[in-house]
Amino acid sequence: MAKLITRKWKLSDLWTLLRNAVSAIFTGNLLLRMNAGKYFIHIAYTFLLCWILIFESLMAENTLNKVEKNKAKLHELEIVYADKTFEVASMSRRSEVSRRLKAMGSAVDEPTEQAISIE
């Protein structure tokens, strides 16, 4: 019977393996040397899943950017709303209404006597 010869692994084998892999990549034979033809569908499916994962991540990032921009716009609109509310409240004061009526030339003024109630 023939004896099986087992060879020990050496560091120079790593250099040979790396050199062969790089030359196979440049010549386009890497997948053929790895016998990956029968696993092509699996490899393509894996790349498709990776692409979908990256695409979903980009879409989520875009959505978060829109949310941040809309929060900033909403904050600005809240400031404008508070300013307008203050303006309206200040316009409805008694002295402001009286001053405006006089500026328009109206004879309406604050009452000098108390109102009479009819029973």
Label this structure with key terms:
single chain; mainly alpha
Your description of this structure?
It is a single chain. This protein is an all-alpha fold and 119 residues long. The chain contains four helices and no strands. The longest helix has 52 residues, at 40-91. The model has no long low-confidence stretch (mean pLDDT 87).
Short description:
The protein starts with 10 loop residues before the first helix and ends in a 16-residue tail after the last helix. The chain has 119 residues and is mainly alpha-helical.
Topology (elements, then pairings):
Layout lengths: L10 H17 L2 H4 L6 H52 L2 H10 L16
Distance between the termini: 133 Å
How would a textbook summarize the main sheet?
A: none
- SSE order: HHHH
Shape: rod-shaped
Average pLDDT works out at 87
β-sheet strand percentage: under 5%
Radius of gyration: 42 Å
Give the helix/strand class: mainly alpha
Count of discrete alpha- or pi-helical segments spanning 4 or more residues: 4
* Percent helix range: 55-70%
* Poorly predicted runs: none
The total strand number stands at 0
